[in-house]
Design a protein that fits this description.
The chain is of the alpha+beta class. It has 3 helices and 4 strands. Strands 1-4-3-2 form a 4-stranded antiparallel β-sheet. A hairpin with a 2-residue loop joins strand 2 (49-62) and strand 3 (65-78). Keywords: Chaperone, Cytoplasm, Protein transport, Translocation, Transport.
């Protein structure tokens, strides 16, 4: 590739024709690992129970920039004792230029968490292993499916709100 082509790729997205989606920055926003019952927990001979909680937060930073935070909390219990709790908030700043609001919503709900997921997966795995426990590999997550479910829930809430608004006051 010639030097001229490399420079063309560095042109800011706002000067390019058409819509643009860019990854500006990826970083760890918060990380925590606790093993409150170690070293005793290492001698427990029970099947561990894992609970995974996933959340996503979006914050608009400017007209064309958003911070997306993918949060994962993994709790492992051995019997009635907590073996460990690993929490990671992996964040990214994404540029979305020249897109319709619906397209922005889709990208923030699907593509951004898909981009962040490998980072959060690696960090969780490293934390668990560094804590002295067997490796844990976070299974792939279907963010498209989660987004579709979110849309379905939004639609149900909107329909419920419009039904409540249309009912006569005395029948509520």
């Amino acid at each position: 590739m010639s030097e001229e082509n490399n420079n063309a790729a560095a042109v800011p997205a706002e000067t390019a024709n058409g819509p643009a989606f860019t990854v500006e920055k990826i970083y760890v926003k918060d990380v925590s690992f606790e093993s409150p019952n170690s070293p005793v927990i290492f001698n427990e001979n029970v099947q561990p129970e894992l609970q995974l909680n996933l959340n996503q937060k979006v914050q608009r930073l400017s007209e064309n920039a958003f911070e997306v935070v993918l949060g994962v909390t993994l709790t492992c219990k051995a019997g009635d004792k907590t073996a460990y709790v690993a929490e990671v908030e992996q964040a990214g700043v994404f540029g979305l230029i020249g897109l319709e609001p619906q397209a922005i919503d889709v990208l923030l709900g699907t593509q951004c968490p898909n981009i962040l997921f490998p980072y959060v997966r690696s960090t969780i795995s490293e934390l668990v292993q560094a804590g002295g426990f067997p490796p844990f590999y976070l299974q792939p997550i279907n963010f498209d499916g989660l987004y579709a479910e979110t849309l379905r829930q939004r639609q149900q809430q909107a329909e419920g709100a419009s039904l409540a608004d249309s009912e006569p006051a005395g029948n509520a």
